């Protein structure tokens, strides 16, 4: 018994006329795997389900319920790398011109088809789509590597910032933040890999980082002007009160309600600026560090808890390299 090789669909053809579907399949099935739909709604479902393999979308214009250019506009927004072709009769040419002007399609094929022309157009469309797919894959992989490097740079930048603000235990505070990041499993947001080049990304990140440091410094000055308690337990409760959405104060410990929100600035994309509250939180850690205090993270059945202790042994410098390896 021989194994049947399943060919992944690379072409989606949409037409409400079954005769046209059969004609199209016979003409191009030797070029690539084909799936078909008889309506825009069905086509959207198939497109979403087979997005990983589909390369080319060919749609008739006039169909009940919705027109083909609506499907191709959807494909343009959701899957911009896929080649979009509109097929239409001469009497519907005005719709085709509008779709071309709006950038919804790459090509149009006039009905009735010439078999040789149809096959040639599909061959070219498949070649173009494969080139685009390979190019986008390489660019995505490159930006994913660059994103990891970006997170590593943020870790180093924060360590330098903690030191620059005269934190006594900068490494210990960084350790606490990175431990929380690792334990709650905060994942980097997907970069806008098809809309931004690396140099623009770096410039945006530099502006983001500089603004964050300014925010932290300003919030630290504001904390220093407050009459805060000096004992660890009372100071911890006072600081937690500044973040009512993130901490819940109990008799025995302070529960972290939203742990990911305390470290999300590490992994956000460059176009998302850290909030004032995030800067205030880092400033609070610097404030504690200046007093020679440290933070401890404890896993509880109901989540994570935060406590303040006297700083222990100095933080080994090699710990920074160890953490960087884990994040890149």
UniProtKB/TrEMBL annotation:
Residues 10-126 form the Response regulatory domain. The modification 4-aspartylphosphate is found at residue 60. Keywords: Phosphoprotein. One of its GO terms (biological process) is phosphorelay signal transduction system. CDD domains: REC_HupR-like (cd17569). The keyword Metal-binding does not apply. PROSITE patterns: RESPONSE_REGULATORY (PS50110). This is Response regulator.
